[in-house]
Amino acid sequence: MTPVHTEPLQVTPPAEVAEVHFDDDMEKRIREILKRYPTKQAAVLPLLWMCQERWGWTSPGIMNAVAERLELAPAFVEGVVTFYTMYQTEPPGKYLLQVCTTLSCQLCGTSGLVDHLKERLGIDFGETTRDGRFTLLDVQCLGACGEAPIIQVNNDYYTELTPEKLDQLLDELV
Amino acid sequence: MEPILLRARGETNSRSISTYLRLGGYGALKKAFIMDPAAIREEVKNSGLRGRGGAGFPAGVKWGFVPQDSPKPKYLICNADESEPGTFKDREIIHVDPHMLIEGIIIASYAISANTAYIYIRGEFVEEARILEQAIAEAYKKKYLGKNILTTGYDLDLYVHRGAGAYICGEETALIESIEGKRGLPRLKPPFPAVVGVFGCPTVVNNVETLACVPHIIERGAAWFASIGRPRNTGPKLFCVSGHVNRPGVYELPLGVTFREIIEEHCGGMRDGKALKAFIPGGSSAPVLPADKVDTAADFDAVAEAGSMLGSGGLIVMDETVDMVWALENLLTFYAHESCGQCTPCREGSDWALDVVRRIRRGHGRPEDIETLQRIARYASQGMTICPLGDAFCGPITSFLNHFGHEFEAYIEAATPAPRKKLPILPVRSGRGTFGL
Ligand SMILES: Cc1cc2nc3c(=O)[nH]c(=O)nc-3n(C[C@H](O)[C@H](O)[C@H](O)COP(=O)(O)O)c2cc1C
Ligand code: FES
Questions:
Q1: Rounded to whole angstroms, how far apart are CA atoms B51 and B32?
Q2: In a domain, B4, yes or no
């Protein structure tokens, strides 16, 4: 198996992201991003990504700050956030286990992995373990079907998994 | 066939610009700059290159639709959304040879007089986005991008724009909406993006693999490219094979090889010596074909004649053990999840079809269910929706019923009526919490 190289997410508690401000570094990034597009609105997705990388998830306060910075209605930004699946609107665990459940992966044994995961972690899809370590999600095709079955952990793909390899992976994600 | 798009596979540091230059990279760009943009468009047209993103539209012809006399800026967008289940070739190109893609983007941008280009890449491809950012930085440093490229007076900026998880954003007009910072709801066509695209300006959207072919066409000529493959179906193609074969993966082969050759010779045959039952030839939206079509040539026209489509070249192989009702349920789960919700026939139809197939598989199918599925497939396809996602889930429904209808019937014959339950009271959802009634 590929060596485990996934960093835990730094998830900021809700109270601390009820209202957010962009520091100087972030402002600099924002100005760079804005230069790429002829409209401010086009920076919505990149700004949301920047914020989620910084704070670990996308709180209502973050949506408001992005809306204000780009001179958009907060409801519009919320509409964008909730249309896409990758902006986390609830604080997740340190490791987002995203299991591909689409056809090619299923043909290669995903359901065995899912049973194993649910049993070992004691949670269902959409839930987080009590210790805040893992959040389990079912996702659609990850575009790497030749290496099925696949789980994406935070940003990284782990491929050709078996229950044994999965155990080894979970043990190392601390 | 000699490897073309994957020629750098196996090279050490294949992604670095020095390796690319050593293999002759950016030579085509220099050649392109002494050609007239119109001559480049003509060359690509003559090569017969057809779009590799799914629809197979001739690339040179699409470039010709951009109104050159328009005073507006023009844009080129590289579609790296790669979300069609069964497809993983663009990722391979990015991993093996990102500069080949960048060179293709620069030549295409020059050919349509664009000064800004975006690569729209799916949000899950974090590593791939980083690879591209790094390659772009190298290209800027060597003056292949930026102001006054190679002192020709031509300017081009190239940016990576990350999606955030939505299959529909692979559809070119939804992709454009997404770059503009909105939800990915497809636009009604016409006007086509070549006339009114991103930011209201003429825009060409091309797939990664399409653009990666361009440097080779310029360097070695349209006639050379057209000599690979078959008439009207020219050039090399990346086939991504997944499912029940011994060696799944990405294979570069000339258009027109047979599916049998791909499966038996290149992929080492069926896994565990099982028999082939069915295959999906071009990504999940392509209608399924039964095993007896395995001698079909893998090119746009031959696959269409066999009743399916070459699509993205994502070949999903299923052996004799696969329950086809289960397989259709899996695919419909995908489409019900990914419908953008804009058009009623697609939003409701995908959910409804999923409910019906799920009911059949759980042993509660009803005699009229097959007719119901066929009716849904009629009403959600062929122009009843803004974008082709409707067709994308209806093709599987009709083809699974055509070729494997007996499996659905067998389930229904053995079914027991579902226990009549009172309709559940659905919880009312507010913004954050869920309340019971
Ligand atoms: C629902 C849907 C999803 C699509 N997804 C992709 C995709 O992930 N990648 C892609 O290149 N094209 C995708 N397409 C096709 C694009 O709309 C467009 O035709 C293509 O990017 C044009 O490039 P080409 O001419 O080089 O093939 C999709 C189309 C539809 C209807
Ligand atoms: S089906 Fe799992 S990555 Fe494509």
A1: 20
A2: no
CA distance linking residue B375 with residue B371, whole number of Å: 6
Axis crossing angle, helix B126-141 with helix B98-111, rounded to the nearest 10: 60
How far, CA to CA in Å, does B247 sit from each of A101, A144, A146, A150, B266? 21, 14, 8, 16, 8
CB atoms within 10 A of CB A123: 18
For residue B365, give the CATH number of its domain: 1.20.1440.230
CA dist B263 → B119, B128, B280 (Å) = 32, 28, 12
A111 touches chain B (CB under 8 A): no
Peptide bond into B417 cis (omega under 30): no
Tell me how far apart the alpha carbons of residues B326 and B31 are, in angstroms, rounded to a whole number: 53
The domain at A14-83 falls in which architecture?
Answer: Orthogonal Bundle (1.10)
User: Do B178 and B65 fall into the same domain?
Assistant: yes
CB-defined site of ligand 1, < 6 Å: B 51-55, 57, 59, 79, 81-84, 168, 170-172, 205-207, 210, 387-389, 392
Q: What is the pTM of this model?
A: 0.95
- Find the CATH number of the domain harbouring B96: 3.40.50.11540
Distance A103 CA to ligand 2 centre (A): 7
Check: complex ipTM more than 0.95: yes
What is the distance in A from the centroid of ligand 1 to the CA of B179?
Answer: 15
Contacts of A1 (CB under 8 A, 6+ apart): A158, A165, A168, A169
Strands (E) in chain A, as ranges, are 95-100, 134-139, 151-153, 156-158
- Band of residue B435 on the pLDDT scale cut at 50, 70, 90: very low
Q: What is the CA angle B335-B336-B337, rounded to 5? A: 85
d(Cα A65, Cα A49) in Å, to the nearest integer? Answer: 13
What CATH topology corresponds to A95-172?
A: Glutaredoxin (3.40.30)
Torsion sign across C-alpha atoms B227, B229, B231, B235: negative
Residues B88, B223, single domain; the answer is: yes
| DSSP annotation of B261 | I
Q: Which residues line ligand 2 (CB under 6 A)?
A: A 100, 102-105, 141-145, 148, 150; B 85
The domain ranges of chain A are 14-83, 95-172
Strands B249-254 and B236-243 turn out to be antiparallel
| Residue B430 clears pLDDT 60, i.e. is over it | no
pLDDT at B431: 46
SS3 B270: strand
